[in-house]
Structures are given as structure tokens and as C-alpha cells.
Request: fold
Amino acid sequence: MSDRKFRPSDRQRGTSRPVSTLIVGLLVALVGGACAGAGGGGGSAGATTITLAAVDNPSMADLKKLVGDFQSSHSNIQVNIVTLPEDQLRQQVTQDVAANSGRYDLFTIGTYEVPLWAKKGWIENLSPYIAKDSSYAPDDLIPGIKGALSYNGNLYAVPFYGESSMLMYRKDMLSAAGVTMPDHPTWDQVAAAAKAVNTSSVSGICLRGLPGWGEQLAPLDTVVNTFGGRWFDQNWNAQLNTPQWHDAVTFYVNLLKNAGEPGAGNAGFTECLNAYNSGKVAMWYDATVAASFFTGDAAKNSGYAFAPTKVKDWSGWLWAWSLGMPSSSKKKDAAWTFADWATSKDYAKLVGTKLGWSRVSPGTRTSTYSIPEYQQAAGAFAQVTLDSISHADVTHPTVDPVPYIGVQYVDIDEFQQLGDQVSQEFAKVIAGGQTVDQALAKAQTLATAVGKVYQH
Amino acid sequence: MSSVAGSGGARIQSAASLARRDAWLRRLPLLPAFVYVIVVTQIPFALTIWYSFHSWNLLKPGSFRFSGLDNYARLLTDESIRTAVFNTVLLTISVIAISVVLGLAVASLLNSEVFGKGLMRTLMIAPFLIMPTAGALIWKDTLLNPLFGLLPNLLTPFGLGRVDWVNRYPMATVVAVEVWRWTPFMMLIILAGLQSQNPEVLEAARVDGANAFQAFRRITLPLVRPFIELGALLGSLFVVQTFDSIFMLTYGGPGEDTTNIPFLLYLVAFQGFNIGQASAIGVVAVVLTTIIATVALRTLFSIFQVEARR
Reply:
């Protein structure tokens, strides 16, 4: 090796001992320091600290603001809220429960996870806890939501926020084009209206095109459902090569091409919200919660209609962010005390009086919708939200019967990946990179592989 | 390493053992670093290899079982993996080729006497210092967004106003963003090579009647060639691992048009939670990068040898 010649040929003996002593000393200091650090993580005496992994959305941000109210009435419980974006939350929490690590005592999970994880025993049955609190009133929870969060008749998570989907439109733009929107529009009416109001500066409608099972596939799935399509038949045979899927996807893509927002392939909830708020689109089909973020003209001039339909009525989706408790938690009672408080009837009132009534998280309790202040603040879309959620049925999402549950998703482990892959293929169609038939052929292959898992 | 003890030649035994002790004392300071490197790199790697021989899906409790070479066999048959390898190669080659050419051009410019050289150099380096995620977001939303982006606005007079660049030309967009990021890196390395050139040589060439192009082609280029090689190899080490900009710009799509190996690994590990399969992809990716890294390090050493010879 050439480095040999760079070595000092003769080293003075005297220096070696102090250097080695120094290194041993450093090592001892390092090890000692690490031990001291390990002893320091105890926390304040007497109080139980629970950790909640929460999805990063406005309702959770409000919960974070109000957590002091909880702690002042429950001095023995400290709540540590970790907020994460949706996909990271899902990864972190999945790893946590799958590895049984007990890092979290509560987490926000959706209607997709609850039945799956309840079946695996990853999350705690909350019905016994609910039974202990006479004031909790589980029957006050909106039935559709309650059903979606139950497994074998027991609640495994309590809803913090619920949503369905609806059509939002600018009344001023539609009337200028001479279009009236019925309360229960069909997709054909919506497409005609979108074309009528579409101009070079204002697009007719915003629909999500951003790949992802929770993005583009959510509205598209509701279109497929109402067109009569389904992911699997009763024997788990993939059904993506059926005419219903072909018609639904073709309809969605053509609507985007003819009257949709530019850059549809990158448009998700946030992008559509920005486009709608800045008056660049006249209509928008998305989550019911969207209306609470409207500003300016969008807030003043918006009308709300139920999810558009074709064959099947009530095609809105159903989703609820809810608090679940991992079986690995070692502080279950404290965790329930907090979950109870955060999803109680009184929490809605607390948010209303402290932060404003428009900030109350929608879609969880029927009683919230009878509070006069909330009715006034939520205005026109409150009733549409409540009715849409009440009519969404996760067990009967399609025209033909299906072996799975879930409206805008299929409640199986494999769906996250399957949905993402399939939505990528549709994104390629939207971008003009392939035809609907090519995309559906690939999607059918992917879905068939998944279906095989459940066939024996 | 035993050469230290051997250099003594015909000394007596005790001297040899003393030398060995001496050698160990010399290695001792390196030991903590060595242990640290093993703990944080080799143990996880060994675990990854171990997992890669198992079928294990995090979402299926009790699915952990030995599956031999199944995961590797699937690497050969799975179409999405072939696509990912193709995309990785395409991305790496085009990014490196374009950024080397641009880097060389900018470096030559900055090596000559131009006004405001210092400011220009600082501005040129800036893309490399911006966080990849932030940079990709700025490209996607501020520059390329078809509704309110800068580029579509500038191109409106030419009838290209509402072109959705990211989705219509996904690979070209990712390449453009990565070239933007890596050109400064290439520029810096090539500039270092150019500045080590003796100006008298060029002057002599001019006296001998060589024009600027000939001097560049025959004298400058051979001199900076090892620097270009080094830049290209170090660059490809990083570009092979491109993740941030793909995640932010295209999320691997549309379809699988921009899914490279790291992004596919992410999808398999964190969308499918298929730890066994993801480990196998990881192992193959490490082997591929190690090959590039070995070549890169050789080039690096050869440059140092040239430097040392001077």
C-alpha cells in the first residue's frame, strides 16, 4: 500500500501512554454520560403521560390548543400530542402496532384501519370503557360512522371527525351560464353543467387526479360505485375489466379533459381548495369538510348538493378520523379518559365557545347538529353533511353485492398498495400517457393477484 | 498492516512484540469510530440480508417465515422492478451527462476573467445548498404549476400556457430538477481542476498557434478529465439514490414512469409493508451502488496520486 511511506518512520515512545489514557478516559466519560442520560427520562412524579399520534389536520390542531383544559381538570394525566401528515402517521402507527412496541397510547385512525386492526387484535375494544361512562351516550354518534368504527357489534374507536362527499358549486357562476343545480344531481347533469360554465379562465369542475388511494381514488371510487362497478365479486374475482368500470373511468377522465382543472394529475384536496377559493373552478366534488375552509366569494356564493349519482342513490363516501387505543398501551385507563373527553358531547361545546362554532369538528354526533350556534355557523352545508354521512353505508357501497366493506376503499390490508398502484395507472390516463383500457387491464391484473389471497 | 512489525527485519523477538503493541496503540484511537461504523451500518445491513430471505408482511401477524431465494426470484420476474431499474439507469445517465456538460461550461466561464465572478459563483452554487425537498416543491408549485406557475405564465405567448409539465413529461421534469441540483456540484469539482492548470501552458499553446478550442480540447480537457470522472461517479452515487424530488414532484408516477429503485423500495416497504421483499430490493440496490462507489474511490485515489507525484 502506498500509504506506508507517509507514516512517521520513528515515533517517540513517550507520547503513547498519555494518548491512550486520554482515549480510555474519553470512552469512560462517554459511557458514563450515556448511563446518566438513560436515568433522566422518568417524567414528573405522580402524573401519567399518554402519547397521542394525531393526523395533521385543523381539528387536531384545535385539540392541541384545548388540551390544557383537559389537563387542568385531570391533573394526574399529561397528554403529549405528536402530529404527523397522513401518510407518515399511517406508516408510524402501522409499524408501532405491528411490532407491538407500545410507543403510543392513542392514535387517530380512519374507518379503513378500524375493522382490519380490530380483527387482528391490534386495537382495544372500547365498548367496556364506554359502558363505564353513563354520560358518553354512544347512541348519539351518527349511525353510519358508528357502524364503520365497529367490529362484531363493538366500538373499537371513537369518532373525532367525520365526513362524506358532496358537490360544491359557485351559484353566481352557474346562474350566469343559465344552469340550475338540483339537490340530488346526476353525473350527467354535473357534466353538462361543467361544460356550460367552462371558459378559458374558469374551469367547469375540480376533481382529484393526484395518485393515491386516499386522493384520486376516493372520488373516483364513488363514481365507479354509482355507475354499477365494484372491485371484487362475491368470490373475490377482480371486476375491473367490466363495462361499468370502463364507463366510470372514461366518464371521469373525459370530464377532467373537457371541463376539469389544468394540471389535474397533481390536484388533490388542497390544490382543488385553492383553485375553488380563488375562483378558478366553478364546481368541486370532494369532502364535506371542504366547505368549512371557504373564504371570500367562495364562502358567500356557494351552493351545496349531494354526491352526484347514476345508478345507485346516495353515492357519497364515508370517512372518520377517530381515536383508537393500541392493545400494546400500558396506560389504557388514562388513555380512555382522554379519548372520552375529546369525543364527548361537551367537547363540541368547548370548541364552539373557546375557538368559534365554525371550528367544531363535523360529522360525529347528531346532537352537535341541534346546537343553534353550530347550525348558524355551519350554515347551508351542515344538513347536507349530516344527511350524506347518515346515508353512506360501508357494508353496501355498490349496486351489486360485494364481499368487502368500505365505500371509497376496499377494507383489506393489500388495498393501500393496490389502490396506489391503480390510481397511478389512472393518473397516466389523465396525463394522456395511455388509454382507459390499457390502465384497466393493468389494474385488473393487480387486483386479480390481490383477490387470490382471499379465495382460499 | 503487519508491515510495521516486519520493517524491523532482523530484530529480536521482544522488539517485535513491542512493535505489535505499538501498532495496536496506534489503532486504538480509531477503534470507537470503527465500532460506531459497524453498529450503525453493518448490523442493519446484516439484518436486511437476513430479512431478504424471509417472507414477512408487517400487516399479517404470523407471516414471518423462511422463504429462501423467493424474494430475489421475484426481482427477476416482477415487471415493476424491471421498470424501476430502467428508470434508475435512465435518470442517472441523463442527469450526470447533462450536468457534467453544463458544469464544465459554467466552470470554464467562471475560470476566465469575467465581471462579478465571486457573486456569480455563489449564485451558481445555491441550488446545491437548497434542501432537495424544498427545491422540488418550488419547482412543482412555483415554477411548473399550470394554473399559477412562473414557466406556464412566461410561455403563454407561445401557446404553451396550460401545459402540465410534471404529468405530461414526468421523467424530463425529474431530470431537469436533478440537473439543476447537480450542475453546481459538477461545476465546483471541475472548477477545482481548471484552477490547478498552469496558465503558462495555455500561453505557450497560444504562442504555438493553437486557437482557443484547440487549447481547450488538447490541453485543458485531458487535465480536467479525472475531475470530470470523479464528479460523474460521485454524482451518480447520489443520483442513483434520488428520492426526495421524485416523492415531491411525481410520487413515482404517472403510472410507474418515474419510479426508480429507491422509490419502489419505499412503496414496497411503507405502502405494502412487505419487509422481506423490500429488503431484497435494498440488498440489490446496495450491491449496485457499491460497484459504482468502488470505481469512484479508485478514481479519487488516482487523482490524489497524480497530486502527490507533483
